[in-house]
Structures are given as C-alpha cells and as structure tokens.
Design brief:
CATH class of one domain: Mainly Alpha
Order of helices and strands: HHHHHHHHHH
Strand content: under 5%
CATH architecture of one domain: Orthogonal Bundle
Number of strands: 0
Helix content: 55-70%
Distance between the termini: 64 Å
Largest sheet: none
Shape: elongated
C-alpha cells in the first residue's frame, strides 16, 4: 500500500541548498544584476518555489552572507578558548583568519562591500541583521581587550573605542581590497601589530603572521 503521507521538508536545509547555488550566481552576475529567475533556474526550481523559502533576493543574499560569516566565526572560535595565547596573540590570530579568508575570495569581498554600502544607503530593516552579525567581530575584540586589561596583559584603554578601531581597520581592508588592487595585506597586518604593541609592555614584541 502506497504511503500518502506528505514528504517532510527541512526548511533550513533547503534554504542552505538554495543559498549555495545562489552564491555562485551573485558572484558571477553581481548583486544588482542577479534576479530571482537566475537563482531558480540554477536550483532547478520555479520562482514560486523559491518564494516559499525567501521573500526576495535580498533575503537570499543575507542568508548566504550570514553562512559565510558563521564559517569565519567557527574558525576563530577555538582561538578564543586557547589558554596558551595572550590577549594580543588572540587578536592577531583572529585578524589574520579574517584577512586570509577574504583576501583569497575577492568576489565574495565584492559582494560584502557592495552590500555594506547598500545597508548604509538604504537603512533597510531587513539588512539590520547582517550589520549586526558583521559587527559581532567588534564585540569579540572588545571582550578580548577587557580580558587583557583585567589580566594586566595590556595597559588600561578605552576598550570600546579600541575595538571599534580594530573592526574599522578590518572592514576598511575588505572594502578597499574590493575596489583597489594596490592594497597591501602585509602592510596592514604590520600596522595592526604596531598598534597592538602600543598596548602592551615595551619589552614584549608583537609579531604579525604572513
């Protein structure tokens, strides 16, 4: 006897499948030239089917970029719990993970940069979630700096302001790298190392990783 029960579909799994295909479309065509029809065609779905999982292409891209951000976050999560590293060493390693992740994926950086600009210009509530997720890195820096001050590993400092500066340097690199070819990753790494050197005892040297 045939089982006529409806097939149970895991919505998030389908969203991830759509997202994986959609990323290649966004990268190939760019954000503004990508249409829902393009994504549906690659996924072998109808537009109506796509709309069962996402309201529009903005929501697809936000979901997609959030997945990418989560991958980067997972990479540096183990660093936060590494008790053999000092506060500054943790910051250096996290910065390098972010730089290495994005420097090797220029097309993805372009998408992130374009969408950051869109968030800034449109002020759309739908995009607030993405802005909040990207700025979690700033909170990570702030918590590390607070930890460093508490442990007396670094000098007393305005942790919120310093975390914001570090975050702006990282975000600025991604945006600049997207639009200009002569942005030096090693120069920025060295500059951040010099900045962090000023926070700790002068007898301790900070090295940046290539």
């Amino acid at each position: 006897m045939r089982n006529n029960l409806p097939k149970i579909v895991n919505k998030e799994n389908v969203q991830r499948e759509i997202s994986n295909k959609a990323l290649s479309v966004f990268i190939k065509k760019g954000y503004y030239n990508t249409r829902i029809e393009d994504i549906a065609k690659l996924c072998d779905l109808s537009r109506t089917s796509i709309y069962q999982y996402f309201k529009n292409k903005d929501e697809i891209l936000i979901f997609t970029l959030n997945l990418q951000l989560d991958e980067v976050r997972d990479d540096y999560f183990s660093i936060l719990n590494d008790k053999t590293l000092s506060t500054v060493e943790k910051i250096i390693k996290i910065v390098n993970i972010v730089f290495n992740e994005y420097s090797g994926r220029k097309e993805l950086m372009n998408l992130v940069a374009v969408f950051w600009l869109k968030v800034k210009l449109d002020g759309d509530d739908l995009l607030e979630n993405l802005r909040t997720r990207t700025e979690k890195l700033q909170l990570v820096f702030e918590n590390l700096l607070i930890e460093g001050v508490d442990k007396k590993e670094i000098k007393p400092v305005n942790t919120k302001s310093m975390a914001n500066l570090l975050f702006l340097l990282v975000r600025g690199f991604i945006v600049q790298k997207s639009f200009y070819k002569n942005v030096s990753l090693n120069d920025l790494r060295e500059s951040i190392a010099v900045l962090l050197q000023g926070l700790i005892d002068s007898k301790t040297s900070v090295k940046y990783e290539k």
